[in-house]
Specification:
By secondary structure, this protein is mainly β. 11% of the residues lie in helices and 51% in strands. The protein is built from 1 helix and 9 strands. Strands 5-6-7-8-9 form a 5-stranded antiparallel β-sheet, with no helix packed on it. Strands 1-2-3-4 form a 4-stranded antiparallel β-sheet, with no helix packed on it. A hairpin with a 5-residue loop joins strand 2 and strand 3.
């Protein structure tokens, strides 16, 4: 029985290493679960392959956005913990744009709901936060505020902290 379990474990490890290009996917000792994966296909990237991943660490439940260039991490953005840091926080989606990609997040509850769309543009082999669409909804009056904020100077993604832009207003 032990030899069967050992064989299955070796086979699973071998398959995981093969799928990961010969290396087991680990993040500082934590195993990531991929919630969303977006391969960017715009011609602006030339021969390089860029991916944007929304990951949850199985061991700690920490969630991050990881940006890869040719399977090498160029940025990791920590996300707030739902309810611990922001009530009902959710990463709604990641989409490719003509200039790069966007990330949509929302949170709130009761009488206040908030949405932010972060737009990252590709320049000089990396991505920069250039603008944010803001949407705030207040109940029961259904008063809605919509605006777009230009980020000057643009923030390189490896210096971007999403929490700085997720205040309740």
């Amino acid at each position: 029985m032990r030899s069967v379990v050992a064989a299955v474990l070796i086979l699973c490890t071998s398959c995981a290493e093969h799928a990961a290009g010969g290396r087991l996917q680990r993040d500082h000792g934590q195993t990531p679960d991929t919630l969303t994966a977006l391969a960017l296909k715009n011609e602006i990237y030339g021969r390089d392959r860029y991916k944007v991943l929304h990951l949850q660490m199985i061991d700690s439940f920490e969630r991050i956005i990881r940006v890869l260039k040719n399977d090498t991490e160029i940025a990791a953005v920590a996300l707030p913990r739902a309810d611990d840091e922001l009530k009902n926080f959710s990463l709604v989606g990641i989409e490719e744009t003509q200039e790069g990609f966007s990330v949509t997040a929302d949170w709130g509850g009761g009488n206040y709901f908030y949405t932010r769309v972060f737009y990252f543009a590709f320049r000089n082999d990396t991505f920069f936060l250039e603008r944010i669409k803001v949407n705030n909804l207040r109940q029961p009056t259904e008063e809605e505020e919509r605006r777009q904020e230009e980020i000057i100077p643009a923030i390189p993604i490896d210096e971007f902290d999403m929490r700085e832009f997720l205040q309740n207003e």
